[in-house]
Amino acid sequence: MKESVMAKAPKQLDDVGVLAYLKANPDFFNAHPDALPGAPQGKGVVDFQQRMLEKLKSDKSNAQRLQKELVENVRANMDNLNRIQMAVLVILEAESFEEFVETVTQDLPMLLDVDTVNLVIESTSKEIPFINQAGIRLAKPGTVKKWLSTGDALLQNNINGAEEIFGPGAGLVKSHALVRLEISQSTPAGIIAFGSRDPEAFQPHQAVDQIGFLAPVVERCFRIWLGLQV
Predict the structure, then answer these.
(1) Domains of the chain (ranges plus CATH)?
(2) Parts of the chain with a pLDDT under 50
(3) pTM, whole model, 2 decimals?
């Protein structure tokens, strides 16, 4: 009697060998249905057509879910972009330095759908003219390095807001985005801080390109209103 191909199968096979073996033994899974992931145990021949149909349904559901998530993300990004553009226009419409600061700290929260926006400037004295202005928070030297180290931005979720950044409103803040302000070489380091009561509004994995664009606009407005050089 001629020895079967199945009996000649090597003890160890690589991927190519496994494929060749299965091609030579097309009834292998009929004889061993338990070798298929998720196959019913002890029920004889597997209904391959049914399994394929279930897999196609699962793949379709996953594709629809991914498509929905993609559309939602695109819409959210467009909404955020529109908010940033509107914020820039409103900032540029300020007619004085005082109005500029007021716009950033009082109007931007509503425009950007956050709960608070703070301008934080390091200082050892309240006598520095340009920051002796309502709406600008004074911080100890080293505050910017403490929070941002050498980076330009920090996004954190599920936090308790820091008073040195958000002042009396710190208790409201459960997530924040802190962006470095480099107004000029002759002025102290600063931060523009966005805080939200939503603990997931800002998350470490999020891109910062949009709020990162807003920070240079604020820097330039500082320089224009105060006659500062870069």
Answers:
(1) 14-40 (no CATH), 66-226 (3.30.450.40)
(2) 1-7, 42, 44-45, 127
(3) 0.67
